[in-house]
Amino acid sequence: MTAPAASPRRQAARGRDASRRRGFTLIEIMAVVLIMGLLASFVGPNFEALRRRRLQDAGERLAAQLELERHRSLVTGVPHRVLVDLDEVAYRVEWLGGGESGLPVRVDLESLDLRGASPLPLAAPPRRNREFEPIPGLFGRFERLPDPLVFAGLETLQGWTSRGESTIDFFGDGSASPAEIVIEDASGDRIVLAVLPLDDAVRFIDEDA
Questions:
Q1: Residue 65 to residues 113, 141, 170, Cα–Cα distance (Å)
Q2: Which bin fits 123, alpha (ψ -120 to 50), beta or left (φ > 0)?
Q3: Could you report the per-residue pLDDT of 138-184, keeping only the tens digit for each?
Q4: What is the CATH number of the domain that holds 197?
């Protein structure tokens, strides 16, 4: 026995119920848009602050390293430098003749006749050529800037460079070769570190000022 056919009114009601189940009402859509807007208003500024904080932290860490090397060169009397590899986005600390290259050549006492038959050398012992080399420990290893930060460039007495390697030099009297280091993030925001010849602190320069 077949079921009686539904009336047109009942069929229309069923269609409306099905359409409600398949889609969203205008009020529901507006509520979702409002919630997403509220979330964006909270997340957006926080993300911007986090990105800026990452850039500032990297600058402060490099500035502290530069200030430390100026003090090390002054206390030890040994020139230091910070080698910046712009292509690898990394830097490390070096000093002049810190290892075997800076030691005097030893005199072979066994070859001398101590009874006076052979003349003693009166001149100062010759020294090997002194070269810059990485200092021992962690600071002598390359340290990379955190992603996505890069070195936009470096301004020294030799001019502006954005590729290859360059150095910021510190001398035994506490002076330094003037330089400006520019660090940039993926959004194009920059921070500039200025190393002055006779200033202990590394200054931050506001490019927008």
A1: 51, 13, 12
A2: beta
A3: 889 999 999 999 999 999 999 999 999 999 999 999 899 999 999 99
A4: 3.55.40.10
Q: List the domain range (segments joined by +) for residue 85.
A: 40-99+131-205
The values of phi and psi at residue 54, to 5°, are: -65, -40
Amino acid at 127: R
Q: How many domains does the chain have?
A: 1
DSSP 4-71: PPPPHHHHHHHHHHHHHHHS--HHHHHHHHHHHHHHHHHHHHHHHHHHHHHHHHHHHHHHHHHHHHHH
Cα–Cα dist 61/67, whole Å:
10
Neighbours of 148 (CB within 10 A): 12
Q: Rounded distance, CA 200 to CA 195, Å?
A: 9
Between the alpha carbon of residue 37 and those of residues 40, 44, 62, 73, the distances in Å are 5, 10, 38, 55
pTM comes to 0.65
Please choose, from the candidates 57, 78, 60, the residue with its C-alpha nearest in 3D space to the C-alpha of residue 69: 78
Whole-number pLDDT of residue 29: 79
Give 75's Cβ-side CA count (13 Å radius).
6
Predicted confidence (pLDDT) at residue 21 exceeds the cutoff of 70: no
Q: pLDDT tens for residues 127-147?
A: 556 799 999 988 899 999 999
